[in-house]
Amino acid sequence: SYELTQPPLVSVSPGETASITCSGHALPRQYAYWYRQKPGQAPVMVMYKDVHRPSGIPDRFSGSASGTNVALTITGVQAEDEADYYCQSADDTGTLLVFGGGTRLTVL
Amino acid sequence: VQVVESGGGLVQPGGSLRLSCKTSGFAFNQNNMNWVRQAPGKGLEWISHINGTSYVKYYAESVEGRFIFSRDNADDSLYLQMNRLRAEDTAVYYCVRSVDPRGAFDLWGQGTMVIVSS
């Protein structure tokens, strides 16, 4: 099996910068993807292939990767960014896809 | 452009259920598709992937040997046959398009709820 590890909770005040990390041993060789899920809604992809932002996602969202860690950074957090965020990647075979346990971002 | 799941419901442990996913608005036979589930109050769990030709299929260990993922490109539809269901299979099941075989889940349905309980 393969696991991605995220902090369960990140809290920031409006206007601050939030960074959500995700670690996994295959991340140096596999891309990471990030999803945002608001209560009662389906997830939405907010970052793909580590650092690329899908159309429609504000440019305050950015991604980074270094070794066995990837991160999603939200600059100038707004109240509407409060949600659960999940990283996703694959194991070294590329045939087992996994999500991290999720990080709840709260905007104080 | 959408995917719409159906077929969820209440089933007894050990029973079977077949989920369907009807897609529209995109070149279905050129796209990878997946099922992702979410147990109540829990995180996301990827469970299966199928490529455009059905030649490539992957399953999570938790469902391998019990669930079968198939597609009908003539009808732009997907199916998840779930057998030998367990209480831990209780979840919302999402039909999801991926633009990459290893992720990039870019189009999600609203999900269908499966409850496994006696």
Description:
The complex is a heterodimer of chains A (108) and B (118). By secondary structure, chain A is mainly β. Chain A is 0% helix and 44% strand. In chain A, the strands form 2 sheets. In chain A, strands 1, 3, 4, 7, 8 and 9 form a 6-stranded mixed sheet that branches. In chain A, a hairpin with a 6-residue loop joins strand 3 (33-37) and strand 4 (44-47). With 118 residues, chain B is mostly beta strands. Chain B has no helices and 11 strands. Chain B has strands at 2-6, 9-11, 17-24, 32-38, 44-50, 57-59, 67-72, 77-82, 91-100, 103-108, 112-116. Classes of the chains: A mainly beta (108), B mainly beta (118). The A-B interface holds A 1, 30-33, 35, 37, 42-45, 48-49, 54, 84, 86, 88-90, 94-102 and B 34, 36, 43-46, 49, 58, 60-61, 94, 99-106, 108-111.
